[in-house]
Write a structure and sequence with these properties.
Largest sheet: 5 strands, mixed
CATH superfamily: STAS domain
Shape: globular
CATH class: Alpha Beta
Number of domains: 1
Radius of gyration: 13 Å
CATH architecture: 2-Layer Sandwich
Structural class: alpha/beta
Strand content: 25-35%
Helix content: 25-40%
CATH topology: Transcription Regulator spoIIAA
Number of strands: 5
Length: 118
Protein backbone atom coordinates (compact mmCIF):
# COMPACT_ATOMS: atom_id res chain seq x y z
CA UNK A 1 0.00 0.00 0.00
CA UNK A 2 1.33 3.43 -0.98
CA UNK A 3 1.76 6.16 1.61
CA UNK A 4 2.23 8.86 -1.03
CA UNK A 5 0.14 12.03 -0.51
CA UNK A 6 -0.45 12.25 -4.26
CA UNK A 7 -1.74 10.14 -7.12
CA UNK A 8 -0.83 10.39 -10.80
CA UNK A 9 -3.24 8.76 -13.28
CA UNK A 10 -2.95 8.40 -17.03
CA UNK A 11 -6.00 9.44 -19.04
CA UNK A 12 -7.70 7.04 -21.46
CA UNK A 13 -5.83 8.56 -24.40
CA UNK A 14 -2.44 7.78 -22.81
CA UNK A 15 -1.32 11.38 -23.35
CA UNK A 16 -2.84 13.10 -20.32
CA UNK A 17 -1.92 12.99 -16.67
CA UNK A 18 -4.44 13.66 -13.89
CA UNK A 19 -2.93 14.65 -10.57
CA UNK A 20 -4.57 14.55 -7.16
CA UNK A 21 -3.52 14.93 -3.55
CA UNK A 22 -2.52 17.38 -0.86
CA UNK A 23 1.06 18.54 -1.18
CA UNK A 24 2.99 20.38 1.54
CA UNK A 25 6.63 21.15 2.21
CA UNK A 26 7.73 17.75 3.46
CA UNK A 27 6.31 15.93 0.40
CA UNK A 28 6.87 18.67 -2.21
CA UNK A 29 10.27 17.60 -3.57
CA UNK A 30 9.22 13.96 -4.07
CA UNK A 31 5.98 15.14 -5.68
CA UNK A 32 7.86 17.45 -8.05
CA UNK A 33 10.18 14.64 -9.17
CA UNK A 34 7.26 12.24 -9.67
CA UNK A 35 5.23 14.84 -11.58
CA UNK A 36 8.02 15.72 -14.01
CA UNK A 37 9.01 12.09 -14.60
CA UNK A 38 5.45 10.87 -15.15
CA UNK A 39 4.39 13.85 -17.27
CA UNK A 40 7.32 13.30 -19.61
CA UNK A 41 6.31 9.66 -20.08
CA UNK A 42 2.92 10.70 -21.54
CA UNK A 43 2.14 11.22 -25.20
CA UNK A 44 4.63 11.59 -28.01
CA UNK A 45 8.21 12.59 -27.16
CA UNK A 46 7.90 15.78 -29.25
CA UNK A 47 4.31 16.46 -28.23
CA UNK A 48 2.51 18.68 -25.78
CA UNK A 49 2.02 17.45 -22.20
CA UNK A 50 -1.52 17.72 -20.79
CA UNK A 51 -1.90 17.99 -17.00
CA UNK A 52 -5.24 17.95 -15.18
CA UNK A 53 -4.83 19.40 -11.70
CA UNK A 54 -8.39 19.94 -10.49
CA UNK A 55 -7.92 17.45 -7.64
CA UNK A 56 -4.58 18.89 -6.49
CA UNK A 57 -4.18 21.03 -3.38
CA UNK A 58 -0.88 22.85 -2.83
CA UNK A 59 -0.88 23.66 0.87
CA UNK A 60 2.17 25.91 1.24
CA UNK A 61 4.80 27.90 -0.59
CA UNK A 62 7.22 24.97 -0.79
CA UNK A 63 4.57 22.90 -2.57
CA UNK A 64 3.99 25.68 -5.12
CA UNK A 65 7.73 26.27 -5.67
CA UNK A 66 8.51 22.59 -6.20
CA UNK A 67 5.57 22.19 -8.57
CA UNK A 68 6.81 25.17 -10.59
CA UNK A 69 10.22 23.44 -10.75
CA UNK A 70 8.50 20.38 -12.23
CA UNK A 71 6.73 22.57 -14.82
CA UNK A 72 10.07 24.09 -15.81
CA UNK A 73 11.58 20.64 -16.26
CA UNK A 74 8.65 19.58 -18.44
CA UNK A 75 8.82 22.62 -20.76
CA UNK A 76 12.61 22.32 -21.00
CA UNK A 77 12.05 18.88 -22.52
CA UNK A 78 8.76 19.24 -24.42
CA UNK A 79 7.53 21.94 -26.80
CA UNK A 80 4.44 22.70 -24.76
CA UNK A 81 2.46 22.14 -21.61
CA UNK A 82 -1.30 22.54 -21.15
CA UNK A 83 -2.36 22.86 -17.52
CA UNK A 84 -6.06 22.27 -16.95
CA UNK A 85 -7.82 23.39 -13.73
CA UNK A 86 -4.68 24.54 -11.98
CA UNK A 87 -4.89 25.63 -8.33
CA UNK A 88 -4.93 29.44 -8.27
CA UNK A 89 -1.52 29.91 -6.62
CA UNK A 90 0.09 27.60 -9.16
CA UNK A 91 -1.58 29.46 -12.04
CA UNK A 92 -0.53 32.82 -10.58
CA UNK A 93 3.16 31.94 -10.20
CA UNK A 94 4.01 31.19 -13.87
CA UNK A 95 2.12 34.35 -14.81
CA UNK A 96 4.09 36.51 -12.33
CA UNK A 97 7.45 34.97 -13.23
CA UNK A 98 7.00 35.34 -17.00
CA UNK A 99 6.82 31.60 -17.73
CA UNK A 100 3.74 32.15 -19.92
CA UNK A 101 5.36 34.72 -22.21
CA UNK A 102 6.83 32.33 -24.77
CA UNK A 103 3.56 30.44 -25.17
CA UNK A 104 4.91 27.02 -24.21
CA UNK A 105 2.71 26.88 -21.11
CA UNK A 106 -1.04 27.32 -21.50
CA UNK A 107 -3.37 27.64 -18.52
CA UNK A 108 -6.86 26.31 -19.22
CA UNK A 109 -9.69 27.11 -16.80
CA UNK A 110 -7.67 27.72 -13.61
CA UNK A 111 -9.51 27.10 -10.34
CA UNK A 112 -10.75 30.29 -8.72
CA UNK A 113 -9.88 31.14 -5.10
CA UNK A 114 -12.40 29.62 -2.77
CA UNK A 115 -12.93 26.60 -5.01
CA UNK A 116 -11.80 23.29 -3.61
CA UNK A 117 -10.53 20.12 -5.18
CA UNK A 118 -13.16 17.48 -5.74
Amino acid sequence: MSTSPHELRTGPDGATLSVSGEIRGESARAFSADLAREALRRGEPGGVVHLYLDELDLLDGAAVAETVNALREIVNTRPGLEIHRSPQMLAHTPYKTGMLEDGRITLIDPVEEGSTAN
